[in-house]
Amino acid sequence: MLNPSHIRLVRDTWAAIGSEDDVLCFLFLEEVSRREPMLRWRFHPDQGLAGAAVFRAMDEVLRALDSESELLAFLEKTGQAHAYHGFWRGDLTTLAQAWVAALQTRLGPELTKARQVAWTQLWQTVSGPLEKALFAKARGPVPV
Ligand code: HEM
After folding, report:
1. For 71-85, how does the pLDDT look when each residue is reduced to its tens digit (9 = 90+)?
2. Given ligand 1 and candidates 82, 123, 127, which is best to mutate, with the most ligand atoms within 8 Å of its CB?
3. Domain boundaries defined on the chain
4. Which end of the chain is more exposed for a tag (fewer CB within 10 A), N or C?
Protein backbone atom coordinates (compact mmCIF):
# COMPACT_ATOMS: atom_id res chain seq x y z
CA MET A 1 0.00 0.00 0.00
CA LEU A 2 1.11 3.56 -0.57
CA ASN A 3 2.42 5.49 2.39
CA PRO A 4 2.37 9.32 2.70
CA SER A 5 5.95 9.53 1.42
CA HIS A 6 5.05 7.59 -1.78
CA ILE A 7 2.07 9.91 -2.28
CA ARG A 8 4.24 13.00 -1.94
CA LEU A 9 6.83 11.56 -4.35
CA VAL A 10 4.35 10.70 -7.12
CA ARG A 11 2.65 14.08 -6.77
CA ASP A 12 5.99 15.88 -6.92
CA THR A 13 6.90 13.99 -10.09
CA TRP A 14 3.52 14.80 -11.60
CA ALA A 15 3.95 18.49 -10.79
CA ALA A 16 7.41 18.45 -12.42
CA ILE A 17 5.87 17.13 -15.64
CA GLY A 18 3.00 19.58 -15.93
CA SER A 19 -0.34 18.94 -17.58
CA GLU A 20 -0.92 16.78 -20.67
CA ASP A 21 2.70 16.39 -21.66
CA ASP A 22 2.75 15.16 -25.29
CA VAL A 23 6.31 13.88 -24.97
CA LEU A 24 5.48 11.67 -22.01
CA CYS A 25 2.37 10.31 -23.78
CA PHE A 26 4.39 9.53 -26.89
CA LEU A 27 7.11 7.81 -24.85
CA PHE A 28 4.56 5.83 -22.85
CA LEU A 29 2.75 4.54 -25.95
CA GLU A 30 6.11 3.69 -27.56
CA GLU A 31 7.14 1.73 -24.49
CA VAL A 32 3.80 -0.11 -24.50
CA SER A 33 4.21 -0.95 -28.23
CA ARG A 34 7.73 -2.17 -27.72
CA ARG A 35 6.62 -4.56 -24.97
CA GLU A 36 3.22 -5.63 -26.34
CA PRO A 37 2.50 -4.31 -29.86
CA MET A 38 -1.16 -5.39 -29.77
CA LEU A 39 -1.77 -3.72 -26.42
CA ARG A 40 -1.01 -0.29 -27.86
CA TRP A 41 -3.93 -0.70 -30.31
CA ARG A 42 -6.41 -1.35 -27.54
CA PHE A 43 -5.95 2.30 -26.54
CA HIS A 44 -7.39 5.01 -28.76
CA PRO A 45 -5.59 4.84 -32.16
CA ASP A 46 -5.15 8.61 -32.13
CA GLN A 47 -2.10 9.31 -30.00
CA GLY A 48 -3.42 12.64 -28.74
CA LEU A 49 -6.73 11.13 -27.58
CA ALA A 50 -5.06 8.08 -26.05
CA GLY A 51 -2.63 10.39 -24.24
CA ALA A 52 -5.41 12.67 -22.99
CA ALA A 53 -7.25 9.65 -21.51
CA VAL A 54 -4.05 8.50 -19.77
CA PHE A 55 -3.50 11.96 -18.29
CA ARG A 56 -7.09 12.35 -17.11
CA ALA A 57 -6.91 8.90 -15.49
CA MET A 58 -3.61 9.69 -13.77
CA ASP A 59 -4.90 13.07 -12.57
CA GLU A 60 -7.94 11.39 -11.02
CA VAL A 61 -5.88 8.67 -9.36
CA LEU A 62 -3.46 11.19 -7.87
CA ARG A 63 -6.28 13.39 -6.61
CA ALA A 64 -8.01 10.40 -4.97
CA LEU A 65 -4.93 9.16 -3.10
CA ASP A 66 -5.84 10.92 0.16
CA SER A 67 -9.02 8.94 0.55
CA GLU A 68 -8.98 5.16 0.26
CA SER A 69 -12.73 5.02 -0.28
CA GLU A 70 -12.61 7.63 -3.06
CA LEU A 71 -9.73 5.80 -4.74
CA LEU A 72 -11.48 2.43 -4.55
CA ALA A 73 -14.73 3.92 -5.89
CA PHE A 74 -12.86 5.43 -8.87
CA LEU A 75 -11.01 2.17 -9.57
CA GLU A 76 -14.19 0.12 -9.36
CA LYS A 77 -16.01 2.43 -11.79
CA THR A 78 -12.99 2.51 -14.14
CA GLY A 79 -12.41 -1.26 -14.02
CA GLN A 80 -16.06 -1.92 -14.86
CA ALA A 81 -16.00 0.68 -17.64
CA HIS A 82 -13.07 -1.21 -19.19
CA ALA A 83 -15.00 -4.45 -19.52
CA TYR A 84 -15.51 -3.41 -23.15
CA HIS A 85 -11.90 -2.38 -23.99
CA GLY A 86 -10.72 -5.25 -21.85
CA PHE A 87 -7.44 -5.90 -20.23
CA TRP A 88 -5.86 -9.21 -19.53
CA ARG A 89 -3.88 -10.45 -16.58
CA GLY A 90 -0.39 -9.05 -17.03
CA ASP A 91 -1.48 -5.98 -19.00
CA LEU A 92 -1.28 -3.73 -15.99
CA THR A 93 2.21 -4.98 -15.20
CA THR A 94 3.21 -4.08 -18.77
CA LEU A 95 1.64 -0.63 -18.39
CA ALA A 96 3.41 -0.08 -15.08
CA GLN A 97 6.80 -0.96 -16.59
CA ALA A 98 6.13 1.16 -19.69
CA TRP A 99 5.07 4.10 -17.49
CA VAL A 100 8.21 4.03 -15.33
CA ALA A 101 10.44 3.64 -18.42
CA ALA A 102 8.70 6.61 -20.08
CA LEU A 103 9.13 8.73 -16.94
CA GLN A 104 12.78 7.77 -16.84
CA THR A 105 13.39 8.95 -20.41
CA ARG A 106 11.29 12.07 -19.91
CA LEU A 107 12.77 13.17 -16.60
CA GLY A 108 16.28 11.70 -16.63
CA PRO A 109 17.97 12.15 -13.25
CA GLU A 110 14.88 13.93 -11.89
CA LEU A 111 13.29 10.48 -11.67
CA THR A 112 15.15 9.50 -8.54
CA LYS A 113 15.17 5.93 -7.25
CA ALA A 114 12.68 6.93 -4.54
CA ARG A 115 10.29 8.35 -7.15
CA GLN A 116 10.61 5.17 -9.27
CA VAL A 117 9.75 3.01 -6.28
CA ALA A 118 6.79 5.24 -5.43
CA TRP A 119 5.36 4.99 -8.99
CA THR A 120 5.82 1.22 -9.04
CA GLN A 121 4.02 1.07 -5.72
CA LEU A 122 1.22 3.25 -7.12
CA TRP A 123 0.66 0.87 -10.03
CA GLN A 124 0.64 -2.11 -7.67
CA THR A 125 -1.94 -0.36 -5.51
CA VAL A 126 -4.31 0.41 -8.38
CA SER A 127 -3.90 -2.87 -10.32
CA GLY A 128 -5.61 -5.19 -7.82
CA PRO A 129 -8.89 -3.24 -7.47
CA LEU A 130 -8.98 -2.46 -11.23
CA GLU A 131 -8.60 -6.12 -12.19
CA LYS A 132 -11.05 -7.22 -9.55
CA ALA A 133 -13.72 -4.82 -10.86
CA LEU A 134 -13.06 -5.72 -14.49
CA PHE A 135 -13.17 -9.47 -13.96
CA ALA A 136 -16.23 -9.27 -11.70
CA LYS A 137 -18.02 -7.38 -14.47
CA ALA A 138 -16.76 -9.75 -17.19
CA ARG A 139 -18.17 -12.75 -15.27
CA GLY A 140 -21.60 -11.15 -14.95
CA PRO A 141 -24.58 -11.80 -17.23
CA VAL A 142 -24.37 -10.52 -20.80
CA PRO A 143 -26.65 -7.44 -21.04
CA VAL A 144 -29.52 -7.70 -23.52
C1 HEM B 1 -4.80 -2.45 -20.89
C2 HEM B 1 -5.17 -1.38 -20.23
C3 HEM B 1 -6.08 -0.29 -20.75
C4 HEM B 1 -6.67 -0.14 -21.97
C5 HEM B 1 -6.53 -1.02 -23.20
C6 HEM B 1 -7.46 1.07 -21.89
C7 HEM B 1 -8.22 1.60 -22.92
C8 HEM B 1 -8.99 2.72 -22.85
C9 HEM B 1 -9.75 3.29 -23.96
C10 HEM B 1 -9.79 2.74 -25.38
C11 HEM B 1 -10.40 4.37 -23.48
C12 HEM B 1 -11.32 5.31 -24.28
C13 HEM B 1 -10.50 6.50 -24.74
C14 HEM B 1 -11.19 7.32 -25.78
O15 HEM B 1 -11.97 6.77 -26.57
O16 HEM B 1 -10.92 8.54 -25.83
C17 HEM B 1 -10.06 4.51 -22.08
C18 HEM B 1 -10.53 5.49 -21.26
C19 HEM B 1 -10.20 5.61 -19.92
N20 HEM B 1 -9.34 4.84 -19.23
FE21 HEM B 1 -8.35 3.22 -19.93
N22 HEM B 1 -7.34 1.62 -20.64
C23 HEM B 1 -6.50 0.81 -19.91
C24 HEM B 1 -6.08 1.00 -18.61
C25 HEM B 1 -6.50 2.01 -17.80
C26 HEM B 1 -6.03 2.23 -16.45
C27 HEM B 1 -4.94 1.41 -15.76
C28 HEM B 1 -6.72 3.32 -15.98
C29 HEM B 1 -6.66 4.03 -14.63
C30 HEM B 1 -5.96 3.72 -13.62
C31 HEM B 1 -7.61 3.76 -17.02
C32 HEM B 1 -8.49 4.81 -16.92
C33 HEM B 1 -9.27 5.30 -17.94
C34 HEM B 1 -10.18 6.43 -17.80
C35 HEM B 1 -10.43 7.25 -16.53
C36 HEM B 1 -10.76 6.62 -19.05
C37 HEM B 1 -11.76 7.70 -19.42
C38 HEM B 1 -10.94 8.90 -19.89
C39 HEM B 1 -11.79 10.04 -20.29
O40 HEM B 1 -12.19 10.82 -19.42
O41 HEM B 1 -12.06 10.14 -21.50
N42 HEM B 1 -7.44 2.95 -18.11
N43 HEM B 1 -9.21 3.49 -21.73
Report:
1. 999 999 998 888 777
2. 82
3. 4-137
4. C
